[in-house]
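Interim report, section 4.2 (structural modelling).
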Amino acid sequence: MTRMAWVVYLKELKDALRDRRTLLTVLLSSVAIGPLVLLAVSALVANIEKRAEARVVVVLGIDRAPTLLNYLQRQTFTVEPAPADWEQRLRDSKLGDPVLVVPAGFEADLARGEAPVVEVVGSSGNQRAQTATGPVLRLLRGFNQEQAALRLALRGVSVAALEAVRIEERDLADAATRAAQLGNLVPYFVLMAVLYGALNAALDTTAGERERGSLEPLLMNPAPRAALVFGKWGAVASVGMLIAILSCLSFLPGQWLLRSEALAAMFRFGVGEALAFIALLAPLAGALSALLMAIAIRCKSFKEAQANSTVVMLVISLLPMVTWFNQEGTSPWHLWVPALAQTTLMGRVLKGEALTVMDVWPSVAVCVLLALLAVGFVARTLKAAAVR
Amino acid sequence: MIEVEDLHKTFTQGRGKQQRVVKAVDGVGFTAADGRITGLLGPNGAGKTTTLRIAAALIRADAGRVHVDGIDVAVEPARALARMGVLSDARGLYPRLTARENIVYYGRLHGMAPKAADARAGQLARMLEMTPLLDRRTDGFSQGERMKTALARALVHDPPNIVLDEPTNGLDVVATRALRDTLRRLRDDEGKCIVFSTHIMQEVERLCDHVVVVAHGRTVAAGTRAELSAASGETDFEETFVKLAYGPDTGVRA
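Predicted structure of the assembly:
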């Protein structure tokens, strides 16, 4: 029985790996896309960092406000005059900084103590300018505070009276936690790699075999049905795992290419993390392969099986998003739901948390149970499927 | 030797109000002896494929038995299948594997060692005159090439009993003749028991030693061609068949 299962396993694996075109598509869509997204994010972050370092303020009519110019220069900011068509350029996202508009008579109003209105113009459709608005507003608040302090000092009031409360910002998240926010993407991509890797092989060994008319002759062999099903299942899970492993490994060189040094320092994904990911994904690969096969064995054609498996694909791809939208952090039930449990646990690995047996066993147990049920169903249905 | 005793099988089709019960096989019985080609002749839908599927342990009969060399197929399917080579109605190959790999895979599933299975594939290829095809992927094979590969696959474990379900479907004249020659050789040189189902009379006339006529799920006549013609009082074998299979009134001369 074991030897027969091995024969079936080797044949199915060979068959799946010879399907070069499908494999290539899967590799491109699930292995290459992860690092590419990582690179794109890093380029974006690097761009933001660069502009933060550049310390530039775009101002319209700075010649009307020498006091403000003096303040900005003391804060080591460079002042750039706004281009003529700045409004249009902001709307078209061609200008990456908000524009500070200084009104006429600014200096005189300021001297008289009549608060002149300065506008910080951005566009909520312009993401780059929008993120740069915060620093400009903070800069202006600093200017306000300085002016107020000067006026109070002139009237002999202590500057301390101005501050009822002193505010300091402290970020509790360490580098690893911040990295995990970006790293949320990595578990998701790796999870989808398992699914896409297993999908084609799962459908080909079941519905595909029926459609080709090779299932009936296969069952006219004296090999036990369990051996056939276990061999097929093993091969499908192996292909899924192979793609997942490639996907995990692709993030290793991906992070060396990270453009932002800060990001590279934050994003901890080394060989150890990759191995932990692979270990966490293995039970899921087994369960998903069996589930896809169980769905496909009832279908008469590959096409029908593809349509039916869309439901699984959709559910699996939506489940990890629970952790993205859930503001209350992870609940204990997350660890019992396949796919969701794996993304949660992988997220913890990225945060540098150690996983205990208690954390891992529910997901493994659920996956094993699901796999056994689905494999049993395939074995029971195989004969009826061949004849229908 | 394959002995089929009074098989019965009904299928239920559809659900709810549209449900109907179809009697696919309703009393088929025959004996196929060794060293003889037994033709299972019947019109489309007569129950030939169902009978052969029961013989190959793919479906269970409601009543009746099939013995292969004395082994009850329903009781010991694995042992019975080991003594049978079945070329079923569905003869799909694996398109990404070569013909040799397709054949060796089945040999392995029959418990053969890799080397023995490979040697047997080569031997069968020489017998079926398909050696040049052996290491090509089966993807672009013609109908005849597919049939040869499927036949080699069914014969890989050198079974004493060979069951073929409409093997000439979709084959041209040359391929059909080649198949007939092969079957004759298997009968004469190796003394195999061959069961051959078809709805084409010429096939039976040219090839079969013993004819079993099946119609409406029942065996309606059995014997040599001469015996059947004598029994129906017709000299033409086609007339004999039409009379036996459809009843005496339906024989409209072309």
